[in-house]
Amino acid sequence: MTFYSHLYCHQCEKTYAKEHIHKYCHECTQPLQAVYDLEEGMSKELIDQSRYDMWRYRAFLPVEDDKHVVSLGEGWTPLMILPKSAQSLGLHSVHIKEEGLNPTGSFKARGIGMAVSKAREMGISKFCIPTAGNAGSALAAYVAAMDGTAHIYMPEATPKVFQLDCEVMGAEVTKVKGSIRDAGLAMAKDNENGQWWDITTLKEPFRLEGKKTMGYEIAEQLDWQLPDVIIYPTGGGTGLIGIWKAFKEMQDMGWIDHIPTRMVAVQTKGCNPVVKAFEDGSDHCVLHENPEETIANGLRVPKAFGDKLIMNTLKESNGFALDVTEDEMIAGIHEFARREGMFLSPEGGAVYVGCKKLIENGYIKPEDRVLLINTGSPYKYAENLY
Question: 79-106+206-385: which CATH architecture?
Answer without folding.
Answer: 3-Layer(aba) Sandwich (3.40)
